[in-house]
Design a protein that fits this description.
The protein is of the alpha+beta class. The protein is 31% helix and 25% strand. The termini are far apart.
């Protein structure tokens, strides 16, 4: 299946779509005024150390303080000559530095490692999401085209996606031979088949970059930015433009020329796969990406059989519900119909989690299956479907009720958070009070406050939907209330009012 990267670049925002065949697999959006900060490195000041949480809040110069967990704190005796690398988007071939440092940190409480006022180097590992500030680590990693440099540790990891044992040995020998500094490396997936001279160039660049960061650390005052990661266009070229990608298509001539200049200097082998799009219709319209984005913002996703899934995201977790919908099956067996729907839903769920970038805790509610063998089939299919996801996933066995618990690594905002905001009309609840509920709330207020309103006539200014209820099915209740409070109640429909908003106005005359 052809694999393509589409880049839609304008002055105000850049969007990158990863397209596999006709299916939109991933979408990344970066807006000029809201550029992401994951990967940025800061000189930070510790604001508060919280022993009860084994964490600290640090100031990196943003509106919200950053969160630093004890497992991401460097030993004071090893700053900053012996920095160890942090997480990357590549999996390591063996027990890497992340696991090792967690184990070492477990025995030392954070109050022995940090104090308020300390100045430290941190790297952003997670974007600020919703009300939470960014998460940071003191274990810096610098990604290049072929390598991820981890200052301060003699460790070489090979991406697990490189399957050949012979190639893995070759890559490890190259890195071991070239490495001259006290630093470690992760060899990225794109490195398979790359000659030794390419690694030497990448290694030299990353070590020079780290040296410049340390120089800035010495003379700049905290909090300040020491290093900003590449913008989205160049990150896509660096991280996504693998040998498996058939084409990279850009619709901006300026961005196309910049990318061509970059690849001709550093990646000449891929230059013939970079294209400028000059079609009559917009790039994302031509490849049907805009329609896919619109569908991705909806709750319901239809399956080809006629079944569907519902995706509900809350503050705490995301729930995915599977339904048979219009699908009635062909075998006459309800169990077969349900199992087929669940199996079809598995592929779509894995796709939607990746496309929408849904992270955190996820609960999947499959349709109940009576046979244990069918439950195993569906669970194994789910394991297979999510195995190609680059985000870290933890998957737990299906319960007898058909529920699967899983977690997916979250580093940036999901599709909905990037493109939407809470509804201003319902204040993000997803619903409003019914016209009847609003009418009866108003009735209760009139009963309580009637004695304090000397006017003989009260004008009820309400939303038209509430007015329709008052003048229609609840007309008798309105008249009974008039008799009860001994006032004339005049209903006035006001289209400018919110559904839940009303005003009781006094008037001396009808």
């Amino acid at each position: 299946m052809p694999l393509e990267i589409l880049i839609n670049a304008t002055r105000e925002e850049t969007r990158v779509a990863l397209l596999e065949g006709d299916l939109l697999q991933q979408l990344f959006t970066e807006r000029t005024k809201e550029r992401g900060i994951v990967g940025n490195i800061y000189k930070a000041k510790v604001l508060r150390v919280l022993p009860g949480m084994q964490a600290a809040f640090v100031d990196i110069g943003l509106d919200k303080s950053a969160f630093l967990y004890v497992g991401d704190v460097l030993d004071p005796d090893k700053r900053y000559e012996d920095l160890i690398g942090g997480d990357s988007d590549e999996e390591e071939s063996s027990r890497g530095p992340r696991e090792g440092r967690r184990a070492r940190a477990a025995g030392r409480p954070i109050e022995m490692l940090l104090r308020s006022g300390d100045e430290i180097i941190v790297q952003v590992s997670k974007e600020p999401i919703s009300t939470k500030g960014p998460r940071v680590t003191m274990y810096v990693s610098l990604p290049g085209r072929y390598l991820v440099f981890m200052p301060g540790i003699r460790h070489v990891g090979i991406s697990r996606r490189i399957g050949s044992d012979r190639e893995r040995r070759r890559l490890k020998e190259i890195v071991d031979n070239l490495s001259t500094t006290n630093g470690g490396y992760i060899v990225r997936t794109v490195s398979s088949g790359v000659p030794e001279e390419e690694f030497a160039s990448d290694m030299g660049f990353l070590e020079l970059l780290w040296g410049n960061i340390l120089k800035k650390w010495q003379y700049l005052k905290a909090p300040c930015l020491l290093h900003m990661d590449l913008d989205l266009t160049f990150r896509a070229v660096r991280d996504m433009f693998t040998p498996e990608v058939d084409r990279l298509i850009i619709d901006s001539r300026r961005h196309f020329e910049q990318v061509m200049e970059f690849v001709q200097a550093y990646l000449p082998s891929v230059a013939d796969r970079v294209f400028l799009y000059e079609g009559p219709s917009p790039l994302f319209e031509y490849f049907n990406i805009e329609a896919e984005i619109s569908r991705g913002l909806g709750k319901r996703v239809w399956l080809k059989s006629g079944g569907y899934i519902i995706i509900e995201t809350t503050e705490a977790l995301t729930v995915v519900d599977v339904n048979t919908g219009r699908y009635v099956g062909k075998t006459g067996s309800l169990e077969d119909t349900i199992t087929k729907t669940n199996l079809e839903a598995v592929k779509e769920i894995a796709h939607q989690l990746r496309f929408r970038n849904i992270g955190g805790i996820i609960i999947i509610d499959f349709i109940d299956m009576d046979e244990a063998g069918n439950r195993d089939r569906v669970f194994q299919a789910l394991q297979q479907a999510v195995s190609q996801d680059k985000a870290r996933i933890n998957l737990y066995r299906m319960s007898d009720l058909g529920l699967v618990e899983m977690s997916r690594q979250r580093k940036r905002e999901n599709l909905q958070q990037v493109h939407c905001e809470p509804c201003r009309y319902c204040d993000g609840r997803g619903f409003t009070k019914s016209p009847t509920t609003v009418a009866y709330e108003m009735f209760r207020e009139i009963r309580v406050s009637a004695a304090d309103r000397p006017a003989k006539v009260l004008t009820l200014s309400v939303h038209p939907a509430v007015a329709e209820i008052l003048m229609g099915e609840d007309r008798e209740s309105l008249e009974a209330l008039e008799a009860e409070v001994r006032k004339e109640l005049v209903v006035k429909a006001d289209r400018r009012r919110h559904m839940e908003e009303y005003e009781i106005q006094q008037s001396r005359q009808a």
